[in-house]
């Protein structure tokens, strides 16, 4: 039996066990939507904006580890999706984005709602396809899902001209896919692994530098075991929060610009840095010439282009973090003496005591860090946490008690304001059993606020905690520190919505909070409301995120807390 | 620094744009680029000559490998390099020197390819730096030349 292109899209998504598609219809994709209407195998979530749809697919993917699927129409539908795609790309999130396109015969004629979609998404996707013949469609969809989730994951975009969705062909979904030109390396080279193990055993001051690749590869149990048995100190990047539990005694916190002093000094003083799927981002290394001057690098990454990109690497291992660690573990544990690193840990513990991650609480005004800690106490341990971008994001990464990987959903690479709320909705759709909390700012929440209606319609109760400082706080902080407090276009105090009315007008519930007691009450009520909730917390307007490595400074030059020693 | 690589790619829609984008996105100039299908295969061979920071180049090569339709990136210090150039002279300027021109072209594996009532076309095939020399010699002696270079093609020894 022959199927139309539109039917093939549906059947292929079913074959891929897709549970939910986040999307928005329009002219060029209408035939596919007509088939969505006729089926009941997967759910479609109609968002209020294509950017929301893509971030939801992203949040769904990050929280569940599955491939997120988004669907949009041609032209403006696709361009609205761009920020979402780029966000997923920089954080290696598996996703398939399907867009409609004008008919093949109209491509290149400046037809209504035509843009060169594959041209636009080429640099922000792992791969993309323009389907020119319906006969290729099933294979391309199979390939897209395969590419999205294999190797270093990422978004894949399929652009389907309208006439291709009408044309008919026999539907055969390939069982397996073999690409001559794409063969990710999962198994690490045995000799390279052996050399790295020897280096680790010889090192006096080794540190595990845990990155997002550890989350993606599902290596966290192994890493916890190795850290426990070797007692080698560890630090995490923003993308790796939760790989180790927050209370693990060998975890010295987050590295980088707003990392802990101890974590950054661990990198600074180490003689061996063992990178587990991290990429030496400029927000982590600080001034690169001064970075880890005395350290050799072991770099484990599935993406060979990351190795040696920023920093010369003595022990490169291309492979999946989990598989490499599986091979490493027996060798590493063989007659290792964890007391070997006692002195090194002692030094790091001193750093930690000297400049702990802390803040000065107050009884007059709520401190944003207090809110995060309190929410961490009150929420179930397995709550999923998303963030927007700004100070609140860094405070969340610093102060929330993370207990497992995939718990924190945050736009680390691109830093996309407007990510947090739709990502939280997508996560809730994928993990109905979990409480989902979005820590956001008064700036960020206004980007994609329209999705309250989506949360209402599909019953996705997500709690937004707005750490409201009436500023674009992170920019304000830089203006204070580096621009003599000239607050150019960052004061939002005269442009605040009434969050209660706003929430209620779209089926949500809102709370204004000015005291600690009010926060606790509001949080409990929000949890019980089963609605999209906004808890608008008036926090100390001028609180800064500290400690901080000033831009392009060495890690050891951290600015620490003002009124201290 | 001058660098030449060959990139073996699957013949598919947009692959040239993907490869060229890698250079453009990193502010790297492509000096020359040649592409043609490899006979009896589904692949094409692109030869790219470029100039710039070797560290960025190393990154470009790794990023090229990451492109899905890229099969192989060949880097070598031991390529045989060939380039073709065609030079068109106005007939009136060179009609008394055809023998000289032809003799010189032969030193560069070339010859006069075409003569008509308006112009003379000479083509030569040689290493790029030898082509430079040939063109310099021609430009020193004659005016109003039209020059076309093919860009370099290479094969490993
Ligand atoms: C889409 C987008 N536009 C601009 C920025 C630049 N930016 C980074 S943080 C920030 C301020 C965010 O303000 P808010 O959401 O209130 O968070 P706060 O820093 O106050 O906690 C801005 C404008 C960005 N990251 N993303
Ligand atoms: Mg703010």
Topology, pairings included?
The complex is a heterodimer of chains A (565) and B (157).
Chain A: E1 2-4, H1 5-15, E2 20-23, H2 30-38, E3 43-46, H3 50-64, E4 68-72, H4 76-90, E5 95-101, H5 117-121, E6 127-130, H6 134-149, E7 155-161, H7 162-166, E8 168-170, H8 190-202, E9 206-210, H9 212-216, H10 220-230, E10 234-236, E11 251-254, H11 261-269, E12 272-276, H12 282-285, E13 296-301, E14 315-318, H13 321-333, H14 342-354, H15 368-378, E15 384-387, H16 391-399, E16 408-409, H17 420-430, E17 436-441, H18 452-457, E18 463-468, H19 473-482, H20 499-505, E19 509-513, H21 516-529, E20 533-538
Parallel strand pairs in A: 2-3, 2-4, 4-5, 5-7, 6-7, 9-10, 9-12, 10-11, 12-13, 13-14, 15-16, 15-17, 17-18, 18-20, 19-20
Antiparallel strand pairs in A: 1-8
Helix pairs in contact in A: 1-2, 1-6, 3-4, 3-17, 8-13, 10-13, 11-14, 15-16, 15-21
Chain B: E1 2-10, H1 15-25, E2 29-37, E3 43-51, H2 54-66, E4 70-75, E5 79-90, H3 91-94, H4 98-107, E6 111-115, E7 119-126, H5 128-141, E8 146-149, E9 153-156
Antiparallel strand pairs in B: 1-3, 1-4, 2-3, 5-7, 5-8, 5-9, 6-7
Note down, in words, how this protein is organized.
The complex is a heterodimer of chains A (565) and B (157). By secondary structure, chain A is α/β, with parallel strands linked by helices. Chain A is built from 21 helices and 20 strands. In chain A, the strands form 4 sheets. Chain A has a 6-stranded parallel beta sheet, with helices on both faces. In chain A, strands 11-10-9-12-13-14 form a 6-stranded parallel beta sheet, sandwiched between helices. Chain A starts with a strand and ends in a 27-residue tail after the last strand. The mean pLDDT of chain A is 97. Chain B is an alpha+beta fold and 157 residues long. Chain B has 2 domains: 2-75, ACT domain (Alpha-Beta Plaits), CATH 3.30.70; 80-156, 2-Layer Sandwich (Alpha-Beta Plaits). Helix content of chain B is 33%, strand content 42%. Chain B is built from 5 helices and 9 strands; from the N terminus they run βαββαββααββαββ. Chain B has helices at residues 15-25, 54-66, 91-94, 98-107, 128-141; strands spanning 2-10, 29-37, 43-51, 70-75, 79-90, 111-115, 119-126, 146-149, 153-156. In chain B, strands 5, 6, 7, 8 and 9 form a 5-stranded antiparallel beta sheet that branches. A 4-stranded antiparallel beta sheet of chain B has the order 2-3-1-4, with helices on one face. In chain B, strand 2 (29-37) and strand 3 form a beta hairpin. Chain B is elongated, with a radius of gyration of 18 Å. The two termini of chain B are 22 Å apart. The interface between A and B is medium-sized, with 19 and 19 residues. Bound molecules: thiamine diphosphate and magnesium ion. The site of magnesium ion has 8 residues of chain A, from loops.
């Amino acid at each position: 039996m022959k199927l139309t292109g539109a039917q093939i899209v549906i059947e292929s998504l079913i074959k891929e066990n897709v549970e939910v598609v986040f999307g928005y219809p329009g002219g060029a994709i209408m035939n596919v939507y007509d088939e969505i209407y006729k089926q009941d195998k997967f759910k479609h979530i109609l968002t209020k904006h294509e950017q929301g749809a893509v971030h939801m697919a992203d949040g769904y993917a990050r929280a569940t580890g599955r491939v997120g699927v988004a669907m949009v129409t041609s032209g403006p539908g696709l361009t609205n999706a761009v920020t979402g795609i780029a966000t997923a790309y920089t954080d290696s999130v598996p996703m398939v984005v399907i867009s409609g396109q004008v008919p093949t015969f109209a491509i290149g004629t400046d037809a209504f709602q035509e843009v060169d979609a594959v041209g636009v998404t080429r640099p922000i996707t792992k791969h993309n396809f323009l389907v020119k013949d319906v006969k290729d469609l099933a294979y391309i969809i199979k390939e897209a899902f395969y590419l999205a989730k294999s190797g270093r994951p990422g978004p894949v975009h399929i652009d389907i001209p309208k006439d291709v969705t009408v044309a008919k062909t026999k539907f055969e979904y390939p069982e397996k896919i073999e690409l001559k030109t794409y063969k990710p390396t999962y198994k690490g080279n045995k000799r390279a692994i052996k050399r790295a193990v020897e280096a680790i055993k010889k090192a006096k001051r080794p540190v595990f530098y845990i990155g997002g690749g550890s989350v993606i590869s599902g290596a966290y149990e192994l890493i916890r075991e190795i850290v426990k048995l070797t007692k080698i100190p560890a630090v995490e990047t923003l993308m790796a929060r939760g790989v180790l539990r927050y209370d693990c005694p060998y975890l010295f916190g987050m590295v980088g610009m707003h990392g802990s002093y101890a974590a950054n000094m661990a990198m600074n003083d180490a003689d061996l840095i063992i990178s587990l799927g991290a990429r030496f981002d400029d927000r982590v290394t600080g001034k690169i010439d001064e970075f880890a001057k005395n350290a050799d690098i072991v770099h484990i990454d599935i993406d060979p282009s990351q190795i040696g990109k920023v920093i010369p690497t003595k022990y490169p291992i291309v492979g999946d973090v989990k598989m490499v660690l599986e091979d490493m573990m027996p060798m590493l544990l063989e007659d290792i003496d964890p007391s070997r690193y006692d002195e090194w840990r002692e030094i790091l513990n001193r750093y930690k005591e000297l400049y702990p991650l802390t803040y000065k609480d107050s009884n007059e005004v709520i401190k944003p860090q207090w809110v995060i800690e309190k929410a961490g106490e009150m929420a179930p341990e397995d709550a999923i946490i998303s963030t927007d971008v700004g100070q609140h994001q860094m405070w969340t990464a610093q102060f929330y008690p993370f207990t497992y990987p995939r718990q924190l959903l945050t736009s680390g690479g691109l830093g996309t304001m407007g990510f947090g709320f739709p990502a939280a909705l997508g996560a809730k759709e994928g993990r109905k059993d979990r409480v989902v909390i979005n820590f956001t700012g008064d700036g960020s929440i206004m980007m994609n606020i329209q999705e309250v209606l989506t949360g209402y319609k599909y019953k996705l109760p997500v709690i937004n905690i707005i750490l409201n400082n009436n500023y674009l706080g992170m920019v304000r902080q830089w203006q204070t520190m580096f621009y003599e407090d000239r607050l150019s276009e960052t004061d939002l105090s005269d442009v605040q919505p009434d969050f209660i009315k706003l929430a209620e007008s779209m089926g949500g519930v809102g709370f204004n909070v000015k005291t600690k007691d009010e926060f606790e009450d509001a949080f409990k009520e929000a949890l019980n409301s089963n609605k999209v909730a906004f808890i608008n917390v008036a926090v100390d307007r001028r609180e800064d995120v500290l400690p901080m490595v000033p831009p392009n400074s060495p890690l050891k030059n951290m600015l620490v807390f003002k009124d201290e020693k | 620094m001058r660098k030449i690589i060959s990139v073996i790619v699957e013949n598919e829609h947009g692959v040239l744009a993907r490869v060229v984008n890698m250079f453009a996105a990193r502010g790297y100039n492509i000096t020359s680029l040649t592409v043609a299908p490899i006979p009896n295969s589904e692949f094409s061979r692109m030869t790219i000559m470029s100039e710039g920071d070797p560290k960025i180049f190393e990154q470009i090569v790794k990023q090229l490998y990451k492109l899905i339709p890229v099969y192989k990136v060949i880097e070598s210090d031991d390529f045989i390099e060939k380039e073709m150039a065609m030079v068109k002279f106005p007939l009136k300027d060179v009609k008394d020197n055809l023998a000289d021109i032809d003799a010189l072209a032969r030193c560069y594996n070339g010859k006069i390819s075409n003569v008509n009532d308006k112009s003379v076309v000479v083509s030569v095939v040689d290493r790029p730096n030898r082509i430079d020399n040939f063109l310099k010699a021609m430009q020193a002696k004659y005016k109003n030349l039209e020059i076309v270079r093919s860009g370099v093609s290479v094969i490993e020894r």
